[in-house]
Design brief:
About 75% of the residues lie in helices and about 0% in strands. By secondary structure, the protein is mainly alpha-helical. It folds into three domains: about 60 residues, no CATH class; about 130 residues; about 140 residues, Alpha Horseshoe (Serine Threonine Protein Phosphatase 5, Tetratricopeptide repeat), CATH 1.25.40. Helix 3 runs antiparallel to helix 5, helix 7 packs parallel to helix 9 and helix 11 packs parallel to helix 13. The protein is globular, with a radius of gyration of 25 Å.
């Protein structure tokens, strides 16, 4: 792969340094983004190190955050799991430093989001590693994974708390365009954090013994979180997705009747526009399993066939559609067998 020379990196550092304040951080930020967008994460880290003490004050204070983000982005491309874990840990440490030193910064919610994401990635690495382990070693890996999930959930909940507090500071009517933009961003931060906290608690349940009281409590807690999000945001797509995830938790608890009630409710949504069609396809893909458990074979045929018949060219060969075709065939076979048994 082509490597950027240190001389080129240095030249941009000098450009940022001599440009004065104001627009000086603009070329520095643009160059950093250019490096990251091309996958030059090592060079981006070298560039950020070179900016220590040389960047304008407005960009200088964000260096720990930018370094953390760069490490997390770079971690995704590391094929070696041990090296990936190191990049994730270093990225999380840099972001924690930024949050500790810049508590009032508007960038804190995004930094906390990246911290939470890093914790989830590390938890998943440990989960993956546990698959090839046994006994005490496996238990220890799963325990470590749970700890990372708990830290991720804490980060997401911190965003919710922070965004909620900052939103309360706004007057009933906001007219300043910049303030309106900030308010909207905080609302999105809050909603995203609520969903991620719920999803993390659901995923963390997988580290517990299958069917144990602890796992049941974990899935129940995640379902409750999703239900609250749905009630607060039922008119938005995020609320509908929360309802679908609530049903998924009921499936994992083996409560298929309860799940079917939720899926049937969601199936009443229209197929258009595209965003709703995509959502409905996801609902059906999950609902089929509960309908099969409840032996509602005809409902599967009635629900899946219209979607398959109206498939768009871009959908025809997707894994989701191929899986739906297989499940519909299984439902048709089960229905035929059921009808034959009734005729005997």
């Amino acid at each position: 792969m082509f490597r950027l020379s240190s001389a080129l990196v240095l030249s941009v550092v000098c450009l940022a340094a001599v440009s004065g304040t104001g627009l000086a951080d603009e070329p520095a930020k643009e160059f950093l983004e250019a490096l990251r967008s091309r996958g030059y994460y090592a060079e981006a880290l070298e560039y950020l190190d070179s900016l220590q003490g040389a960047a304008p004050a407005s960009f200088q204070e964000t260096l720990p955050s930018e370094r953390g983000i760069t490490l997390l982005l770079g971690a995704k491309g590391q094929k070696d799991s041990a090296l990936r874990a190191v990049w994730l840990a270093d990225g999380e440490k840099s972001l924690q430093k930024f949050v500790a030193e810049n508590k009032e910064s508007p960038l804190v919610p995004q930094a906390l989001l990246q911290i939470g994401n890093a914790m989830v990635e590390q938890a998943r690495l440990l989960m993956k590693k546990s698959e090839s382990a046994a006994g005490a070693v496996r238990s220890e890996l799963l325990s470590e994974s749970r700890e990372h999930y708990a830290k991720a959930q804490s980060a997401y909940e911190s965003i919710s708390k922070l965004a909620g507090e900052r939103l309360k500071a706004f007057p009933a009517k906001v007219e300043d365009p910049k303030k309106i933009e900030e308010q909207q961003r905080l609302r999105m931060d809050l909603l995203q954090a609520l969903l991620l906290a719920a999803a993390t608690s659901e995923e963390a349940a997988e580290t517990l013994e299958k069917g144990s009281a602890e796992q049941i409590a974990a899935y129940t807690g995640a379902a409750d979180r999703y239900e609250k999000i749905y009630k607060d945001y039922r008119t938005r797509m995020a609320g509908l997705y929360a309802r679908m995830y609530q049903a998924r938790c009921q499936q994992k608890l083996g409560k298929h009747q309860e799940a079917v009630v939720l899926f049937d409710e969601l199936m009443k949504n229209p197929d258009e526009p595209d965003v709703l069609r995509t959502f409905k396809l996801k609902v059906v893909a999950l609902a089929v399993d509960s309908w099969m458990e409840e032996k509602q074979y005809q409902k599967i045929l009635d629900s899946v066939r219209p979607l398959l018949d109206s498939a768009k060219d871009s959908e025809e060969k997707t894994p989701e559609f191929l899986e739906l075709r297989v499940k519909m065939a299984l439902a048709a076979k089960a229905l035929a067998e059921e009808q034959r048994n009734e005729q005997k």
